[in-house]
Predict the 3D structure of the following.
Amino acid sequence: MTGPDSEFDLIRRYFAEPAGTSPDVRLGIGDDAALLGVQAGHELVVSVDTMVEGTHYFPDHPPASLGHKALAANLSDLAAMGADPLGAVLSLTLPSVDHDWLAAFSRGFLALAEQASVPLVGGDTTRGPGAISVTVLGQVPAGQALRRAGARPGDRLVVSGALGGAAAGLAFEKQRRAQGRPPDEESPDCARLFWPSARLALGRGLRNRARAVIDISDGLLADLGHLAAACGCGARVDWSQLPVDPLLEGQPEEMVRDCVLAGGEDYELLFALPPTEPLELLSLSVRTSLTVIGEFTSGSDIEVVDAHGARLDVARRGHDHFAG
């Protein structure tokens, strides 16, 4: 099919515009596959993520912010590995061709691609139930990739930025929908939900410093559980030290706890830092707020305690893609 709504026409019209350049991209969009070079002394890093309509995003999710978010979620995985982006591949499954939607989606996707210097080097479009799949490729100096395993009892548990903003934005978005109001991607209440950021500079700054790293996509406690399990450790989180997103100020305590501990899609980095590593210097060098929220412990328990050390009862732990 080569008409105005053919796969190749859609790619040429909406995705062929260069989004950032890189000497490592030898051949991009327009051939059977892309050619990328990896610098000498580096290792290739690859991550893929899929978003399904009705599961990960509403059918009427504003398309510009959806394009941004689809790429940002994948770049966050590169950040958690300490990698520099090389390129991205996008696969779109659409129930029908909507030119206004495609124009806005590609605008949001390509704007972030240019900002993060990650060229779109290939992809695929097809008709079917809505789904967006992005694969990102990056590189990291050999032997310096950040991993989940490596934390030791006594290491500080550190998080970047603030927590709970995306989950709070989702709660406010659901309230809007219940009132019959359309989604508003420009609302400050939903900025963390619609326009997340990937901590790429922090990831690079953690090379040879952090012992274990993960990005927070499924919720603080869920992802801490993954991190601790990979390290063979437990962890203690001090609720009084958690950096709560300002969006949650004045909200009910139950909502605050749920958003901060179990709300996903904050895309902050959670990592283990040795006691001797200077946190303030690291924070200044990457221009990102960093907070010590607890420590890794022996054993396997993940516990949340209050300012007095009393254990808090936490019902929900985070997002599970296959939960009922």
